[in-house]
Amino acid sequence: MPESNPDLDQLIRQVQTLAKYSRVSTELIRSLLIRELAKRPNPKEAVKAVRSKLHQVGTAYQEKPLPYGAWSEELAALPADLHDPKVLAFLQHVLPAHSSTRERMPILPTFFTECLAGLGDINSVLDIACGLNPLAIPWMPLKPGCTYTACDIFSDMIDFINIFFEHFQLNGQALLTDVTREIPPIEVDLVLILKTIPCLEQMDKETGQRLLTGLAAPNLLVSFPARSLGGKSKGMVRHYEQHFHELVAGRAWRITRFEFPGELAFLVQK
Ligand SMILES: C[S@@+](CC[C@H](N)C(=O)[O-])C[C@H]1O[C@@H](n2cnc3c(N)ncnc32)[C@H](O)[C@@H]1O
Questions:
Q1: How close is the Cα of 216 to the center of ligand 1, in Å?
Q2: In this structure, is the dihedral angle defined by the CA atoms of residues 177, 180, 185 and 186, taken in order, positive or negative?
Q3: pLDDT band at 231, cuts 50/70/90?
Q4: pTM of the model
Q5: Burial track 31-65 (b if 16+ CB lie within 10 A, e otherwise)
Q6: CB of 216 within 8 A of CB of 187?
């Protein structure tokens, strides 16, 4: 290995020595490090830049390490009926731990039913950069037995979502996947790309375009935050609406717009 090309595995471990990055996908850290080292050969600075990027796209949405161990124990003691009041209370307690689902809590009873009304049977879903959103399945109008595939970059989050799927015997699978590099090659009725395009575009500017044009599913529900993490709206609806229209310009797709407090959504039908 040339002098200026440091041992990547060691740098990956260095990024992961901070607890909040210890469960981030190693492959994502590797690709970010390669990119940063190409810009700045100083390994210390590259590690710092990668940590900063991981904060921006991942840990900023979780104020503290999430207590997946304790949640798994609580889950194990719950009935296996997803609509049992004790289960719904548990999920309503867990969902706000991720800021994206916390912001969606006030609109959860109507968000999915309104956006997905009229789609007919939904037998399969792909949830891109899912956060804790799969735990909102009881509020989604899905056909019983629906397959649900979810992707994110935190291995502990992915493990917990799989425990959730297993406990309720859902036809689900959570995958540790950097969606800027790969998308599970599956055919689904519906793809969820919720509040995530601005986040992914901080890693790769072309991701939003690639997802919208590359995903062959007949229905995509795409949403954008209408408030910043700090709670300010700062013209975000106008800004993201314009960005979305740039992404779909020239396409003969049917677009339906929904505006909720805190979230702007578009149903794209191809
Ligand atoms: C703004 S949150 C949206 C979460 C979820 N879609 C929702 O609306 O509830 C962005 C999510 O993208 C995930 N993420 C960031 N970069 C990613 C990548 N390259 N591949 C997959 N997921 C990623 C983060 O961990 C975070 O959970």
A1: 20
A2: positive
A3: low
A4: 0.95
A5: bbbeebbeeeeebeebbebbbebbeebbbebbeee
A6: yes
Q: Domain-by-domain residue ranges, the chain?
A: 8-57, 68-269
Is residue 124 a contact partner of residue 146, using CB atoms and an 8 Å limit? yes
Q: What CATH number does domain 68-269 carry, 3.40.50.150, 3.40.50.720, 3.40.50.300, 2.60.120.200?
A: 3.40.50.150
Which residues lie with the beta carbon below 6 Å from any ligand 1 atom?
A: 28, 57-58, 61, 100-101, 129-131, 133, 151-154, 177-180, 194-196, 199-200, 203
Note whether 159 and 68 are within 8 A (CB): yes
Q: How confident is the model at residue 217 (pLDDT cuts 50, 70, 90)?
A: very high
Interior angle at CA 173, CA 164 and CA 71, nearest 5: 20
Question: Which of 127, 196, 207 is the best mutation target for the ligand 1 pocket, counting ligand atoms within 8 Å of the beta carbon and taking the most?
Answer: 196
CA of 169 to the centre of ligand 1 (A): 24
The arithmetic mean of pLDDT across residues 148-166, rounded, is: 97
Q: Ligand 1 center to residue 130 CA distance, Å?
A: 6
138, 111 in Cβ contact below 8 A? no
What confidence tier does 163 reach under pLDDT thresholds 50, 70, 90? very high
Element (H, E) at 58: none
